[in-house]
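This entry is retained here.
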Amino acid sequence: MPGNRLFRWEVGDEAATAAAFERAETVVEVAITNQRLVVNALEPRGIVVDPGGEATRIWVSNQGVHAARNDITRDLARNADTLQVLSPDVGGGFGMKLINHPEYSLAVALAEETGQPVKWTAGRSESFLADVQARDLHTRAEGAFDAKGRLLGLRWHSTSNVGAYTPGYGAAVHTMFSGHLIGGVYDVSAVHHVVEGVVTNSTPVDAYRGAGKPEVLHVMERLMSAAARRIGLDQVEIRRRNLIRPYQIPYTTAGGIEFDALDAPAVLDKAIAAADWAGFPARAQAARSAGRLAGIGLAYYYERTGGGPVERGRIEMQADGTILAHVGTQSSGQGHETAWAQVIADQLGVPFDSVRIEAGDSAALPDGGGTGGSRSAVQASRVFLRASEALVDAALDAATELLEVARPDLAFDREAGAIRIAGTDRAASLQEVAAHAGGLTATGAVDDKITTTPNGAHIAEVEVDTDTGEVRLTRYTVVDDFGRVINPMIVTGQVHGGVTQGIGQVLGEAMVWNEDGQPLAASYMDYRMPRAADLPFFDVELVELPTPSNPLGLKGCGEAGSVAAVGATANAVMDALALADVHDLAPPYTPVRVWEALNHR
């Protein structure tokens, strides 16, 4: 391929951006590396195939059974109804397990050719070498600022190493998935971002928690903090001067992203107070007295979540009152079985314990979107709202015979979970109606793509040991706006997980090879995963600013922590290193890299 270039993609207005730079008082430039990562799901990829029966049954560690079914049927030129794909327990996905890795279709072909069950499971080192990998974006970013530190324009050039092939979403990760998030939550009207995709003899890169957004927001937030230092402003003040204001909502960014619910100044103020930003100088002085360099870092992020276009669901109320709910999204640790049961129980007025969520079976529904892109809450909640409405409608029809009245005389009492004769005390619970009818079934579907924009401010503090180069994260504060929250405990857990993955990228993780192409990281002995001892307790506060884009007013949350934590943690490390006159160091900030920078090696 000429020049090893797979594509050239761009967003924004090149001429308007050039004009903004002409007017600038100060131009700030940074070169930011988002190094290549290995996904490292707890449970490696695996598949079991049983060719017996009317359809070949496949158990696979995958985030979307319908997508897996469609990929395999395409690979083997088969009809979809000849396969049943099940995925009862994924063991962590993070985007990697949405991809059609080649072992799956090979296992199915082998099972059908031999007539025998086939099982394949990746070993850990095999996962390091053969699973699609993550990140690998290198960006040179310029920001144009006026005399007051207001952002006039952004001019970026990014190089995306997609690896040797693009088997899934690889070409989209740093372009249509994230490249247009340039500008972040800041009021800037002139941007131009060019992304070149290059092919190399390395493992393909694909979607990984955040799918390009952590990379882009890392660049944006590092640029803002670098500009603050250059212009002579505090990290907080430069952001305050540039944030999109509530009176500007609805607001469309120069990259084409629409904000319909945003109060960034209020969120930032809450984060500054929760992190005790004013008390940091005293903490920094105490660290200095102990021979350590202290740094504080801020990142204001936003995410574009949702995704479509298809999602399906079915609610079955059995004669005994038990509710089985089927949906095309799957849980890989997000707690769907709790959140969806809450939505259904609330809509139908039935006990939470009566609802059981069934997912991960391609035979249960004709199609479904799977889990990825923080889409599940946005899509599945609407599916279950519609299915619940349809179930109530069916119950009203069935209750006419049970209560011996005409349909117009009946109404649904949601609080009681009952069908009531209007103007009387006579009623029948949904369970009684279902028992009389021999069960009730209803479906719901969405065939659109609605996106939401969760956002928030994350603040990290670190201390650097000047003798060893060790970076210790001492405090981490989160204020997130996810709109209306179904289950705060589950959402907070998602924040913890995402933040930890972002911290892992900044402080340790990297996939590297030697000059001969030999992998130097192929096990947990030589790949620095984040560990519990690396982390402080997280201080998380949720702000609910509902979005009008969906009936529940919720915004996706699953990837947000990883989007924010990279920039916040990197800014904290570089703030500390600036005290030793180190201003240009690429992550990961491992002890040896930091020590070498401090000692100018």
